[in-house]
Amino acid sequence: MSTSPEPGSDHEAASRPGTRPRVVLGVSGGIAAYKACEVLRRFTESGHDVTVVPTAAALEFVGAPTWAALSGKPVSPDVWTDVHVVPHVRIGQGADLVVVVPATADIMAKAAHGLADDLLTNTLLTARCPVVFAPAMHTEMWEHPATAANVATLRARGSVVIEPAEGRLTGKDTGKGRLPDPDEIFELASQVLVRGAVAPDLAGRHVVVSAGGTREHLDPVRFLGNRSSGLQGYALARAAAARGASVTLVSANVSLPDPAGVKVTHVGTTAELHDAVVEAAAAADAVVMAAAPADFRPVAARKHKIKKTADGSAPTLELVQNPDILATISHDRARPGQVVVGFAAETGDESGTVLDLAAAKLARKGCDLMVVNDVSGGAVFGSPDNEAVVLGADGGRRAVPRGSKSALAHVVWDEVLARFGS
Ligand code: CTP
C-alpha cells in the first residue's frame, strides 16, 4: 500500500475557504481501532478530506484495505512509500486537524517526547494545526504516572486529550480507559476544527447543565412528554468540558451517548430533575437549564393501564403543576455570583412577539440569561442546528445566526464567562 498525499503547499492553503477541511486520522495499535472506522465515516460523510495514517500495530487490528476503502485514499504506516512527495512532512503540514483514534499510551508517550519513527509520529511532529487524542487503554495504563505526565505535557502544549470513558474494557474488566463514543469524538474534534484548540477558559469552574424532556407517567405504558431531543443540552455539556469545566449533566430521557469527561445523572420526571439539579447547583458556578420539564403531572399515576370504555367516554386526567426549577434556583441562589441560564422556546401570540414574551419570562424567572428560540412551526426540535437570541438580565442582547448547536453552546458559555465575578 502506498500513501499519496493530496497536493497542496501548506496549512494556510488547506484552510482557504472553499476547500474541504483536511483531517488526518491517526490510528494507533489498540483493539478500539475498529471504532475509528466510524469516526472516519462521520468525517467523510460530512465533507471532510480525510487521510488515514495508521501505525503498523494498528494494521494488526484493522487492515489497510479497510482504511483505503473508507477514506478513498491509499494508506501506509511508514515513511518509505512515495518518498518523492515527502509524506512524512507534507501530511502534517497540510492538515487542518489531526485526530488520533484510539490513542494508546505508547503513541502519547512518543508524541510527548517528540519521537518520530513512523509516519504517524512524523505527522504529529510536523503538524501545526490542532491535535486531538482520543485515548483507549486499560485503567492501569491510563492511571500510570508516566501516562499522566505525558497527557499533562500534551495538554500543556495545547493538544486536546479527551478523557477516556468508563466502562467495559477488553476482556472482563471494567474501569476508566474505554474509548469515548465515536460520535462524541467526532463532535468534539469538529468543535476543535471550527474553533481551533479550545482555550481552557472554564478551568476550575463547576457547571450544571440539564438536557432532554421529562416524562410524567399516566399509567405503566403512557406518559405526558415533549419533543426535546437533548441535543442542545449535550452540546452545552460537551463545550463546557472541552473548555476545561467540571460538568454535571442532568439528562432526562435522552437517547444520546454520555459526553466524554462529563458526570451524567439520568432522571425521568420533573420532580427527579428538580432534585438532581438543586443538589448539583449547590456547588456550581453556573447552571444552564436547557431541559424541557413537563409543567404538569397527574395527581397520581394509575397502577394499571387505563382501558377504553364500552360507551366511548374518555378518562379525565387530573393534573397538578410541577415546581419551576429555573425560578427556584434563580431566586434562591446556592452560591453568590452563580450564573443561571434559562431557555425559552416561544411562539409569538396576540400578547407579544417572541422576544417580548421571552424578556417577560427572563424577568419573571429571575435568571441572568435567557436563550430564546422561535419554535413556530416546530423548528429546532431534533435538528442539529439552532438559531437564537441571548437576552441578559443586564439588558444584553446577542443574536446568534443559524448554525450548529455546538456553536450556540460556545456563545452561551462566552456570555456566562463574561458574567462570572460581575
Ligand atoms: N423550566 C423549569 N421548570 C419548569 C418549566 C420550565 O426549570 N417546570 C425552565 C426550562 O428549563 C427553561 C425555562 O424554564 O430553561 C423556560 O421554559 P418554558 O417551558 O419556556 O417555561 P414555562 O415556565 O413552562 O413557560 P410557559 O408557561 O410559556 O410554558
Automatic annotation (TrEMBL):
Residues holding CTP: 295, 305, 323-326, 343, 361, 365
As recorded in UniProt, its EC number(s) are 4.1.1.36, 6.3.2.5
- Catalysed reaction, written as an equation: N-[(R)-4-phosphopantothenoyl]-L-cysteine + H(+) = (R)-4'-phosphopantetheine + CO2; (R)-4'-phosphopantothenate + L-cysteine + CTP = N-[(R)-4-phosphopantothenoyl]-L-cysteine + CMP + diphosphate + H(+)
Which Gene3D superfamilies does the record cross-reference, listed alphabetically?
CoaB-like, Flavin prenyltransferase-like
Q: Which cofactor does it need?
A: FMN; Mg(2+)
Enumerate the InterPro entries for this protein: CoaB-like_sf, CoaBC, DNA/pantothenate-metab_flavo_C, Flavin_trans-like, Flavoprotein
Which SUPFAM superfamilies does the record associate with it? CoaB-like (SSF102645), Homo-oligomeric flavin-containing Cys decarboxylases, HFCD (SSF52507)
Question: Which parts of the sequence are annotated with region: Phosphopantothenoylcysteine decarboxylase?
Answer: 1-206
Residue ranges of domain DNA/pantothenate metabolism flavoprotein C-terminal in the record: 202-417
One biological process GO term for this chain? coenzyme A biosynthetic process
Q: Where is the Flavoprotein domain?
A: 22-188
Which parts of the sequence are annotated with region: Disordered? 1-21
Which UniProt keywords are given for this protein, alphabetically ordered? Answer: Decarboxylase, Flavoprotein, FMN, Ligase, Lyase, Magnesium, Metal-binding, Multifunctional enzyme
Mind naming one GO cellular-component term on file for this protein?
A: phosphopantothenoylcysteine decarboxylase complex
Domain of life of the source: Bacteria
Q: How is the cofactor bound?
A: Binds 1 FMN per subunit.
One example GO MF annotation:
metal ion binding
Part of which pathway? Cofactor biosynthesis; coenzyme A biosynthesis; CoA from (R)-pantothenate: step 3/5; Cofactor biosynthesis; coenzyme A biosynthesis; CoA from (R)-pantothenate: step 2/5
- Region feature (Phosphopantothenate--cysteine ligase): 207-422
Report the protein's function: Catalyzes two steps in the biosynthesis of coenzyme A. In the first step cysteine is conjugated to 4'-phosphopantothenate to form 4-phosphopantothenoylcysteine, in the latter compound is decarboxylated to form 4'-phosphopantotheine.
What family is this? In the N-terminal section; belongs to the HFCD (homo-oligomeric flavin containing Cys decarboxylase) superfamily. In the C-terminal section; belongs to the PPC synthetase family.
The UniProt entry, under NCBIfam families, shows:
coaBC_dfp (TIGR00521)
The record, for HAMAP family, names: CoaBC (MF_02225)
In terms of PANTHER family, this protein maps to: HOMO-OLIGOMERIC FLAVIN CONTAINING CYS DECARBOXYLASE FAMILY, PHOSPHOPANTOTHENOYLCYSTEINE DECARBOXYLASE
Q: Can you name this protein?
A: Coenzyme A biosynthesis bifunctional protein CoaBC
Which organism encodes this protein?
A: uncultured Nocardioides sp
Gene name of the encoded protein: coaBC
